[in-house]
Amino acid sequence: MTKKIDNNIIEKKNIDFFSSNSEYQKNVATIDTYKILYSEITNFIKSSNKLLDIGHGGSFDYDTSKVKEITGLDLDKMIDVSKLPKNIKLVEGSALDIPESIGNFDTTIVVMLLHHLVGKSVSENLENLDKCLKQIHKTLIKNGKLIIVESCVPNWFYLIEKLLFKPTSFLINKFMKHPPAFQFTQEILKKYLTNNNYENINFKKIKQGKFILQYGIKVPTFLTPVETIIITATK
Ligand SMILES: C[S@@+](CC[C@H](N)C(=O)[O-])C[C@H]1O[C@@H](n2cnc3c(N)ncnc32)[C@H](O)[C@@H]1O
């Protein structure tokens, strides 16, 4: 019961920060790291016919005209639907409980979503990662492709992040508009993908630009330990 209430608080914070956040959408469209990602992600999605984008945030950081049919799933519509191209439809729902009504995708993509699936402890964050990967598995056709675009952290940082998660997420919840986040290592993502029966798991490290967003704030990339990674895996 308390877990459900905590999830609702986190989901509400995500909606309050990302919904119709034109500043965030402008940052994604203009900051060098996300421009590099735009062309990288476009290369990965261009052979897809039916794509599910979970946690799209209204920003769709790739060329949406390359895919015939896109379904965007997020906690809220996030963007004025009249501004969307005709091949995109939006569904409201959670990555932790994907509506049964959507499925049969040849590709499901999550761009900078996984670090937002936080609970109230590190073990809940890992449970949510596991739950999300299980839910995504159901959305894919046989041999369908999962694309994960994530900012990952090195092991030394993960140890610090784990130790400080409770106090920092408490302070972020109290004083920041941006929701709390928890970044994983590449090894953890690989382990959870394998445990959830994904195959052909591949990692590509993306060259980052001079700037990157951390907690929604534009910061010089050299100040952060994060690495931007594109992971692909098949069902
Ligand atoms: C950092 S933004 C990424 C937006 C976009 N994919 C991009 O890269 O610009 C994270 C997005 O994940 C969404 N999100 C957070 N928790 C979610 C959940 N449980 N289910 C679906 N979406 C969620 C947020 O609402 C937000 O739109």
Question: Which features would summarize this protein structure in a list?
Answer:
single chain; 235 residues; alpha/beta; Rossmann fold; seven-stranded mixed β-sheet; two-stranded antiparallel ribbon; 6 helices; 38% helix; globular; binds S-adenosylmethionine
Describe the structure.
The chain is α/β, with parallel strands linked by helices. It has a single domain, classed as Rossmann fold. The protein is built from six helices and nine strands. Helix 2 crosses helix 3. The site of S-adenosylmethionine has 20 residues, from helix 1.
Q: Give the topology string: H per helix, E per strand.
A: HHHEEEEHEHHEEEE
Q: Uncertain spans, ≥5 residues at pLDDT below 50?
A: none
Report the biggest beta sheet as strand number plus sense, adding barrel if it closes: 7 strands, mixed
Lateral strand order in the biggest sheet: 3-2-1-4-5-9-6
Derived structural class = alpha/beta
Compute the number of helices.
6
The CATH topology is: Rossmann fold
Small ligands present:
S-adenosylmethionine
Question: On the 0-100 scale, what is the average pLDDT?
Answer: 94
The helix fraction, in percent, is: 25-40%
Integer tally of domains: 1
Using only CA atoms, what is the Rg?
17 Å
Q: Tell me the β content.
A: 25-35%
Q: Give a count of the beta strands, DSSP E runs of length 2 or more.
A: 9
Distance between the termini: 33 Å
Question: Judging by the overall fold, what is the CATH architecture?
Answer: 3-Layer(aba) Sandwich
